[in-house]
Amino acid sequence: MKTNFILVDFENVQPKSLKIIKDYDFRVIIFVGALQSKIPFDLASTMQSLGDKASYIKIAGNGPNALDFHIAYYIGELAAKHPGSYFHIISKDRGFDLLIKHLKDKRILISRNSKIEDIPLLRIANSSTLPQRVDSVIEFLKSRGNSKPRKITTLKNSINNLFLKKIEDKELEEIIQSLLKKKIIITNENKITYKIP
């Protein structure tokens, strides 16, 4: 399984807590600006509970984009040490988007989200209603491009993994039936073809 790194631009986004990730294997780095002197208690407490999977980096200098350059540097360093990892930048700063496009062109898995809750894996795993889960599966299938599952059994396994194996067989069957009803998938015996809008 890929290592997921969360890199938080704390000058730009100040999460109050990281409780949403407690059941997942994320590595978290919070980048703190030179002039920032306070961390919310709940955030510090969850960071501490993550042990060696969490760290702070306080930058020494102050200036335009100083913290952003630190995040860019650490992504490069981590990508070299942990090839195949996924990097989630948490920032509202769209200045990261060109860097992200470049890194994706280099086949580095990376995204930027404004909130930790928007990380696709967390959003998917925490979806609770059938329509939310079906939408999550459709987004997942879109992201797979030409490498979508070609058999019902493989699709079921992929959906189960997508929801971190926390989904009941009945719910899994309801998702498959919804995909069939919406004509997202068409089955012929055990084989599947897709018509994703």
How confident is the prediction overall: mean pLDDT? Answer: 90
Which fold name corresponds to the CATH topology of the largest domain?
Rossmann fold
Task: Evaluate the radius of gyration.
Answer: 19 Å
Measured between the Cα atoms of the first and last residue, the distance is 29 Å
At the first level of CATH, what is the class of the largest domain? Answer: Alpha Beta
Count of separate DSSP helical elements: 7
Which regions are unreliable across 5 or more consecutive residues at pLDDT < 50? none
Work out the helicity level: 40-55%
Dominant shape: elongated
Beta strands, count = 7
Largest sheet: 5 strands, parallel
Series of H and E elements: EEHEHEHEHHHHEE
Q: How many structural domains can be distinguished in the coordinates?
A: 2
Q: Which band does the percent of strand residues land in? A: 15-25%
Main-sheet strand order equals: 3-2-1-4-5
Structural class: alpha/beta
Describe the structure.
This protein is α/β, with parallel strands linked by helices and 197 residues long. It has helices spanning 41-49, 66-81, 96-105, 120-125, 130-143, 152-162, 169-181, and strands at 4-9, 26-32, 54-58, 86-90, 109-113, 185-188, 191-194. α5 (130-143) crosses α7 (169-181). The longest helix has 16 residues, at 66-81. The radius of gyration is 19 Å and the shape is elongated. The protein starts with a strand and ends with a strand. The mean pLDDT is 90.
